[in-house]
Design a protein that fits this description.
By secondary structure, the chain is mostly helical. Helix content is 50%, strand content 10%.
Length: 165
């Protein structure tokens, strides 16, 4: 199995869990944040959805330069629109991976802001860290926000404390 096929399998499995979580975000409580330094619920949920769109920047491109790309944020009308965007980004990620040979994962990728280089790593490490681990980190944060709002959580890797069956 190629590296791309392995990543596709992981993306598809995790996308289902992410979609279940995003689907229960109460948009009317979108301004909620558990701490003054925290993102709002709406911003965090959108961030979880948008991370699936980073495969293009991390695999098709050889660098991300914040001096050239401001990272404009997409606004959503409601939870349904955000979930639909998540689904669209997952499909695009899979399409990118279907056209990515194993050799591409060994090529260097750089994150920078103009002349300031933050790091250069092989693309395989970048997608693991920025496209997957980053998603899992923020998805976990989102579960905490929802728990604090007393919203029953779906299981991610099996039953949750709210749903046992």
């Amino acid at each position: 199995m190629s590296l791309a096929q392995q990543f596709i399998a992981e993306i598809q499995q995790e996308a289902a869990a992410t979609k279940r979580l995003l689907s229960i975000v109460p948009w009317e409580k979108g301004d909620y944040k558990p701490h003054e330094k925290s993102m709002t619920l709406k911003r965090l949920a959108s961030h979880v959805a948008e991370i699936n769109g980073w495969w293009k920047e991390c695999l098709v491109q050889d660098e991300l330069d914040f001096a050239k790309d401001s990272g404009e944020r997409k606004e959503h009308a409601d939870t349904g629109a955000m979930v639909a965007w998540h689904d669209e980004l997952v499909q695009k990620a899979v399409a990118i991976l279907q056209n990515t040979p194993d050799e591409e994962f060994a090529k260097p990728w750089t994150m920078r802001a103009g002349e300031q280089i933050f790091f250069t790593l092989p693309k395989g490490e970048v997608v693991r860290t920025w496209c997957l681990n980053h998603l899992y980190h923020h998805r976990g944060q989102l579960t905490v926000y929802l728990r604090l709002l007393d919203i029953p959580l779906p299981g991610t890797y099996g039953p949750s404390a709210d749903f046992h069956g």
